[in-house]
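Ticket #515: bound-state structure for flavin-adenine dinucleotide.
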Amino acid sequence: MALVGDDGGIRSRVMAKDFDAIVIGGGVAGLTAAAYLAKAGMNVGVFEQQHKLGGLAGAFSRGDFLFEQALQWVVGCHPGGAISTCREELNLTLSFRQLDPWSRQIGPGFDVLLSSNIREWVEELCRLFPKEAEAIQRLTADALKLFRRIPDTPRKPNDMLTRWEKLRIGLTAVLNMRLYRKYMGISIQDLLMQEFRDPQVRTFFYSLCPVGSASSLLLLTTIGWIKEGRFHYPVGGGQAIIDSLRQVIADHGGEVSCGTAVEKILVEDGRAVGVKLSGGATVGSNYVVAACDAMRLYQELLPAGAVPNHVLENLKEMEPWTSYFLISLGVDDSVTELGSWYHHITYCPALMDALDSEDPTHWLINVVDNSFADSLHAPPGYRSIAVGAPVSFEYRQRWRTISEMRGPEYTALKEEVAAALLASAERILPGLRKRVRVADAATPITYRRYTGNWKGSRRGWLPTVQAVSWLRRETTPLLGLFQCGHWYVPSGSISSAMQSGKNAALLILREAGLS
Ligand SMILES: Cc1cc2nc3c(=O)[nH]c(=O)nc-3n(C[C@H](O)[C@H](O)[C@H](O)COP(=O)(O)OP(=O)(O)OC[C@H]3O[C@@H](n4cnc5c(N)ncnc54)[C@H](O)[C@@H]3O)c2cc1C
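RESOLUTION: The complex was predicted; output attached.
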């Protein structure tokens, strides 16, 4: 199918050909899928609506500073992990620095460093909260038992698992049945209420995984990651991952078009056959990979009736992960001498129940040193850091916007929240504000606008028990259409999005007889 353009511009001429596969979205998932497809010899085209690649995993510059849009750490860099495997298979030029200890948790009654020496911090917790010692030890022991017994999942789609791999996973499930039964059906919030009487201990464990309605398995997994020293920071930040993937695509003849939104997926006889771009051009392909927001895919990009109604009905029942308020700061290097400075801090100014209050001075905040792994994020003598808080998209009736249009009321609210979060950060890092040279704030509206993620979700769907059972992985009800990214994995992250991109590519290659 030839490209039919109505803008007649350079872009149309560059893209004037068919593709074996089209990828919608140049986030980390879409780029991973495209890199695998291009490396296997497919003619691939990536369309990214923004003028820059990366989606949430990317970075942006202000003056001499490089700021992360999202990244605080990555998992999956251990041998056999999702990121290491992609790095090896795609020859990505990437290096990582381990974060061990991972984070400093500060809150009412605790100030604890979370290192892989789990015995040390569990003992410290038991000393701080002797009446809860038994429950603390029980929860952490269960987490480690569960984590030890779960084999690293094979780095491929479920329906490409060998019989032996399926057997191994089945056996693990049987071995873990008691723990699954105990933890799978209960949310983090309910588990902490059930296990601990002391609200300070509840707050400590909540700070490890501050998503109350998510399945408690997520909290247990986080404890396992800490024990195994799984947290890393990429040298060059998220942008290094994005740039290395882009390089692989270019090296293998793939094409990337930024500033080009896909408006519709073209469907003929129940099969995806290409896309319609903003500007009206249509491009044909044998396969389409949707590496974008799930709501947009099913509600906007696909024509009515293309997928069964129950798929859309299920989506309406799902809840997105909460969004985020991010303040990116270029600061003097002397920030490292302040109060409780650490490369990653989670600070709870209030007890668990109050952390979700309307008052931003109560919100849990993260302080992250983007300059931890390299000197690329800031000029000499400075650091790039971020102060941020998880927050709802609906806060103060959708951030005082009208249909997400940002006016003076939105700006005033943004400034008010930024000031409150910085005041909170000052309590653990007194003198921080005086050291700020450059500042930039992003709200959930910014995340929504910039990446299209529904309700500014930062990791796709919230991994509630219900969501995990409904979740569709990389295949879709439509022939020729695959999906990948953080909306199609049980728990969104850079590593799971990359794995999902790889899975979509492997399924296509198998179907095309190229695997
Ligand atoms: C504040 C915050 C902190 C986070 N911290 C971490 C962390 O520390 N560690 C970690 O591992 N993960 C973290 N995450 C999550 C992680 O960043 C994401 O899960 C991951 O980057 C998602 O990648 P993706 O490719 O699936 O989606 P996205 O990054 O959302 O990419 C989708 C891309 O598709 C494009 N797009 C959408 N619709 C269209 C269209 N119609 N046409 C063309 N292009 C389109 C978008 O512009 C975007 O570039 C964080 C997220 C946030 C927001």
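RESOLUTION NOTES: The chain has three domains: 10-58+236-318+461-511, 100-230, 322-454.
TICKET STATUS: resolved
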